[in-house]
């Protein structure tokens, strides 16, 4: 592999990791508050299609991204009403949300199928972007890539260093304790879930506005599920989610590259399966209670909280 | 002692009433808690103790009545209002987040933490605060790794850190060893008498009341049953107020001597260890008819495993169990045929379906006796349930109420009623009186003794040594899955048994 191939390849790793990172960070925050929202895939699709539609209509990428975040948040609100206020099963509600998001995005997206939009503009840094190797590797991306990386650090700082972060963790670790101290468990979980929805929406929009700036039905192709697995893989830490997203992004791109190069004898379909197999394994493992405690999952993850009267 | 606390306050409840649906939990209760004194709030389970303090602390809103703080009427609508007035509570469970450190737990509980926490400053402040405390707790250890006594101290430290001036302790010693309990209550009394706080202890341990408490308030069935200074009240007088009867229940009478032939005979029983804990290795265990064999031991030394094997919840890898000389494999069929009954500990969780009715729960063992009939016989079930409710004095709102709403004593009565119905050759009971109040304890123990007197072989597994000393004809000590000591129940030496329990004899 020559340097001429390597740099564009690594750039693709970064862009393919970005949607995963957005969605995983959002879900991570929701899960740290004790809520397991399996609707990430649905929220990403909603973000992707609404972002694309607003982009087509207005040509403004800022409005498009805001619309995507709003779409993800709206679906998350639906989840919150069902799973938090009405105390429905989080797993069932999340799965339903994914099905709903898939259907809704197909319906809205029908008229956009096959259309394209101009990709998000690159945010070049004068001077730095022209540096050899470093320039193209670190300083030739759109704003969303930088935003996703900054979010990982900001969320880590928020969880460790702020009052809000500490309360959020407490709600996820011991809802009853947090409630008895006087923290509003349900409200905090709502905020975390809504944030998760906004981030998933942005992740989806990055797919339809930057990674492949077009609309195709179910274009997230299971990335929402990969993001869910990433949260576990990252042991609920934002820094590790960043590394994990780039690792999964790397596997995806490597697989595409190998497919194109014809260098390996392994059927490319097998390689294409790798991220999904890893996801299935991880999701299977966390379904057992003992594995969860060993992986230091938030103790109240997935448990419904009801305020006693 | 120099603390930041501004001083004890007086709290008074005036005519508090609280109803849940048709059930009246509190019926016009008035009580005054004088400042800088240790108060005991006494009463049986369900007497309304927790409801009263929850009203004081804003977790419930009283339907009638008012609360005076320092003689002035206070409006306490939610916990935050109680906080602002300096009223706080230490619960038995659940107010510290186990995976977070003591420091994080303390800081988090405060209402005025800045949005961004400057940990180095908080830490300095915490260390300085800790210096003013009569006892120390480590700041950087996750609460989950502290021993029960340390955790209880952390709770109290937290309340002082929050500048509480009126503190309710809900059964603070229920999870502590006697030594830890005395130390903790001594510290609380010292703190209270120094004028820092007013303390209310919810309890039913009369010995602690006599040793550490100034004033006593007794509730019974939602009403005030009496109050006074602790030193002017005898234990008998307080018990009489609590249960509303002049007579303290007597110890059950033991009648007749054990039979010769063994009912339960266990030989060479082995189970594999789990997670670093020793499995069972019982060479010989015999229980005769009309005999209570008590198994004493520190929690986690294989007692639970033995109950599970006898209940058929865990398979033994080796060994033989005989009941009346016939092989017993702990299946439901064998238990019915050999008349074996097992009462697991925590009956609500392990022996009942909380959301099903009292009637259903009382019929679980026998509902399909009719022999292959498809339909349930609701009439027979109802009759059987009513008979058991009468015989065992079960207090339930209705036979059709979910069993989960009953008090612990009544749940245990239900399970006993169900399991002692009909012929019983062998009864296995685990911690039958854990968490029950005085009267229920006496009642349950009398039932077990009555079963023994009627000829049943009883295997009593209990972590309460007093219970074993009171009931057992023969006492075995279990340690690391083995029987390490045996002594007759009459005249048994508690100290010697204790030494064998911890392996220092």
From TrEMBL, chain A:
Coiled-coil intervals, chain numbering: none
Pfam families reported in the protein's UniProt record: BPD_transp_2
InterPro entries named in the record: ABC_transp_permease
GO terms under cellular component: plasma membrane
Annotated TM spans: 6-26, 38-57, 63-84, 91-113, 133-159, 190-209, 215-234, 241-258, 264-286
Keyword terms, alphabetized: Cell membrane, Membrane, Transmembrane, Transmembrane helix
Localization in the cell: Cell membrane
CDD domains reported for this sequence: TM_PBP1_transp_TpRbsC_like (cd06580)
GO molecular function, one term: transmembrane transporter activity
Keyword Membrane: yes
Keyword Lipoprotein set for record: no
UniProt topology in membrane: Multi-pass membrane protein
Domain of life: Bacteria
Protein name stated in the entry: ABC transporter amino acid permease
Lineage, broadest ranks: Bacteria, Pseudomonadati, Pseudomonadota, Alphaproteobacteria, Acetobacterales
């Amino acid at each position: 592999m020559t340097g001429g191939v390597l740099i564009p390849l690594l750039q693709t790793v970064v862009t393919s990791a970005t949607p995963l990172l957005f969605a995983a960070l959002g879900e991570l925050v929701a899960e740290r508050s004790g809520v397991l929202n399996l609707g990430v895939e649905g929220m990403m699709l909603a973000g992707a299609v609404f972002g694309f539609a607003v982009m087509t209509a207005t040509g403004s990428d800022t409005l498009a991204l805001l619309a995507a975040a709003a779409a993800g948040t709206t679906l998350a609100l639906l989840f919150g009403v069902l799973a938090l206020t009405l105390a429905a099963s989080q797993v069932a509600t999340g799965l339903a949300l994914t099905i709903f998001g898939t259907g809704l995005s197909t319906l809205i997206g029908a008229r956009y199928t096959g259309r394209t939009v101009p990709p998000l503009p690159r945010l070049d840094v004068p001077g730095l972007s022209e540096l050899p190797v470093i320039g193209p590797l670190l300083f030739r991306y759109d704003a969303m890539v930088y935003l996703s990386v900054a979010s990982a650090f900001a969320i880590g700082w928020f969880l460790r260093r702020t009052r809000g972060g500490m309360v959020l963790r407490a709600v996820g670790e011991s809802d009853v304790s947090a409630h008895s101290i006087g923290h509003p468990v349900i409200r905090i979980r709502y905020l975390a879930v809504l944030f998760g929805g906004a981030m998933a929406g942005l992740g989806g929009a990055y797919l339809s506005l930057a990674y492949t700036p077009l609309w195709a039905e179910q274009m997230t192709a299971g990335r929402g599920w990969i993001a869910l697995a990433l949260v576990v893989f990252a042991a609920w830490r934002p820094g590790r989610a960043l590394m994990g997203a780039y690792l999964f992004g790397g596997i995806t791109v490597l697989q595409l590259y190998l497919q194109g190069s014809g260098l390996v004898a392994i059927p490319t379909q097998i390689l294409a399966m790798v991220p999904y197999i890893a996801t299935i394994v991880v999701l299977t493992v966390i379904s057992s209670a003992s594995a969860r405690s060993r992986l230091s999952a938030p103790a109240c993850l997935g448990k419904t909280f009801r305020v006693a009267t | 002692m120099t603390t930041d606390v501004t001083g004890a306050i007086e709290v008074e409840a005036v005519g508090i009433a609280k109803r849940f649906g048709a059930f009246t939990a509190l019926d016009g209760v008035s009580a005054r808690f004088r400042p800088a004194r240790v108060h005991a709030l006494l009463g049986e389970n369900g007497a309304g103790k927790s409801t009263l303090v929850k009203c004081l602390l804003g977790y419930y809103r009283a339907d009638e009545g008012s609360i005076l703080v320092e003689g002035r009427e206070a409006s306490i609508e939610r916990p935050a209002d109680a906080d602002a007035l300096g009223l706080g509570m230490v619960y038995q469970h659940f107010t510290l987040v186990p995976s977070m450190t003591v420091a994080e737990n303390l800081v988090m509980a405060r209402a005025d933490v800045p949005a961004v926490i400057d940990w180095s400053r908080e830490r300095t402040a915490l260390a300085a605060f800790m210096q003013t405390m009569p006892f120390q707790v480590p700041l950087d250890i996750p609460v989950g790794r502290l021993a029960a006594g340390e955790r209880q101290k952390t709770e109290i430290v937290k309340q002082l850190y929050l500048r509480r001036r009126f503190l309710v302790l809900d059964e603070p010693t229920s999870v502590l060893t006697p030594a830890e309990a005395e130390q903790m209550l001594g510290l609380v009394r010292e703190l209270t008498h120094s004028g820092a706080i007013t303390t209310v202890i919810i309890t039913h341990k009369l010995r602690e009341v006599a040793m550490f408490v100034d004033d006593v308030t007794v509730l019974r069935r939602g009403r005030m049953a009496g109050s006074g200074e602790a030193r002017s009240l005898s234990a008998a007088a307080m018990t009489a107020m609590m249960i509303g009867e002049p007579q303290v229940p007597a110890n059950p009478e033991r009648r007749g001597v054990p039979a010769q032939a063994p009912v339960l005979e266990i030989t060479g029983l082995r189970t594999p260890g789990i997670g670093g804990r020793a499995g069972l290795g019982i060479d010989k265990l015999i229980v005769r008819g009309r005999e209570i064999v008590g198994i004493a031991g520190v929690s986690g030394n294989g007692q639970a495993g033995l109950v599970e094997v006898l209940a058929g919840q865990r398979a033994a890898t080796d060994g033989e169990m005989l009941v009346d000389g016939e092989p017993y494999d702990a299946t439901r069929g064998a238990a019915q045929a050999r008349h074996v009954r097992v009462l697991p500990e925590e009956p609500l969780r392990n022996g009942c379906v909380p959301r099903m009715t009292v009637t259903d729960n009382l019929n679980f063992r026998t509902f399909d006796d009719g022999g292959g009939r498809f339909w349930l016989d609701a009439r027979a079930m109802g009759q059987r349930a009513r008979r058991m409710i009468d015989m065992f004095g079960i207090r339930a709102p209705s036979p059709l109420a979910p069993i989960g709403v009953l008090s612990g004593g009544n749940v245990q009565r239900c399970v006993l009623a169900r399991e002692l119905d009909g012929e019983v050759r062998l009864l296995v009971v685990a911690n039958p009186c854990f968490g029950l109040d005085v009267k229920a304890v006496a009642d349950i123990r009398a039932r077990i003794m009555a079963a023994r007197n009627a000829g049943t072989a009883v295997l009593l597994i209990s972590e309460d040594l007093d219970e074993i000393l009171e009931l057992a004809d023969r006492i075995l000590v279990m340690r690391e899955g083995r029987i390490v000591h045996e002594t007759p129940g009459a005249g048994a030496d508690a100290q010697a048994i204790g030494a064998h329990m911890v392996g220092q004899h």
